[in-house]
Amino acid sequence: MKHPVKIAVVCLARKTYDFGAAGELYSKIREDLKSVEAVQWCFIDELVISQEDGLAAAKKLAGEHVDGLICISGTFHLGHLVLMLKRELAVPVLLWGLPELPYNGGKIRLNSVCGVNLNASNLYKSGFDDYTVIIQNTVDQDWIDALRVIKAMKGSKIGIIGYRADGFFNVGVQDNLLFGQTGALVDHYELSEVHNYEVRDEEVSRRRKQLADTFDVSTLSAYQLDKVSRLSAKLDAFYHANGLSALAIRCWPEFARDFGVSPCAAMSLLQSEGLILACEGDIDGALSMIAHKALGAETPFLFDFSQVDFEQDFALFWHCGVAPCNLWDGVCNRSLDTYFAGGKGVTADFVLKSGELSVLRIDSARGGYRMFLQKAKAIPMEKLLKGTYMKVVFDRPVKDVLNLVLDNGLAHHSSVVYGTYIRALELVAKIKGWKVIC
Asked: Molecular function (GO) terms listed (predicted)?
């Protein structure tokens, strides 16, 4: 399910051109837009022609609290109009030009492209870079999806329990920089607040049955299974009680020692239900998963580049056993295991399913933010390791991708989802003024 947004739409025109045809085209566009998923539209129904029209439209839309503005150049028009709207609406703008109609009597009818050129130049020279341009008959769905990401980040509340993992300086964030760049707010909680969170025994029992139905738990003791069940209930209740958009967890070294098991298996279960849970206190990683979810991608999760094979040209996306259990390949034995932390490291163990992948890391560094994007493909492999993992190939040599990560000092976690989610995120970066690493 995509993140909902609210978008204003105006159609600009001038009576020296075929504004009647522009009005007919605009009527059809309005009807077509109503079918777009999870968008509340704020239409200015009449063509905006004069300065007075522009002022009236801007005043009306200023109170709607929209997330974006579509300015259709129905024909060429006054340059004042977009600037009047932008002055009142501090939101990203889509400048939409229409393909020219067949000539009628030797006269150009719309001159829409020139109107888009005028608007783009006026906005750029006024210092605005948050505009996108299209020349086509249908709306740019990727631009709408970019607004979803921006809104989801802006409205997010990211919790962190404990701190980042010991020594993982590269996933630390500066909270005010994060807020300034995205609008996301961070709240800190102690590990003990989750460990001691009260839950009903009935919920623990329900989680115990769910775990046993989902995983092979034959290697766990009754104590370990009870601890994972109890933690699943606690994390779920804590997450919702605090109204969190995501939760980053200092999952080692203290967690297993103080609670009795690591959180990996519980995180695998809860992520399959749509919770965004980030390992090792990685707040930017959580933000990356929020962005993927806003696009409608299901169950994003964090992975490590744990292995590269330059001869066979693949990478291993691995983590210690936390990937959402619904992404299991359906072939291997999906199990829980205790292979680390002296028997307290209860993790999920399975190979992830094959399919097209999109990789994202929204990453802070040197006082700013940037975005790492890649397309990849998970291919079948045998279950050879503990933890959760997949064998991955890229549309370029894996060495080139690894060098992008290393040469740009990217953090060692990225969010991965099934499906293709690239261009909308490129537009997010353009609107935000972030560098894209791809």
From this structure: isomerase activity
Q: Across residues 5-9, what is the average pLDDT? A: 98
- Going from the C-alpha of 120 to that of each of 144, 301, 352, the distances in angstroms are 19, 38, 45
Asked if pLDDT for residue 37 goes beyond 80, the answer is yes
Determine the pLDDT at residue 235: 98
pTM, full prediction: 0.97
- Give the span between the Cα atoms of 214 and 219, in whole angstroms: 14
The DSSP line for 390-422 is EEEEESS-HHHHHHHHHHTT--SEEEEEES---
**Listed residues 139, 168, 193: the one ending a domain:** 139
* The dihedral sign for the CA sequence 287, 288, 291, 296: negative
* Cα distance between residue 331 and residue 4, in whole Å: 36
Specify whether the CB–CB gap between 304 and 316 falls below 8 A: no
Per-residue pLDDT of 54-91, as tens digits, reads: 999 999 999 999 999 999 999 999 999 999 999 999 99
- Per DSSP, helices labelled H in 89-169 are 112-125, 141-154
One domain, residues 118 and 239: no
| pLDDT above 80 for 345 | yes
Q: What's the CA gap between 27 and 29, in Å, rounded? A: 5
Euclidean distance between the first and the last CA atom of the chain, given in angstroms as a whole number: 26
Whether residues 209 and 319 fall in one domain: yes
User: Do 24 and 75 fall into the same domain?
Assistant: yes
Q: Is 306 left (phi over 0), alpha (psi -120 to 50) or beta?
A: alpha
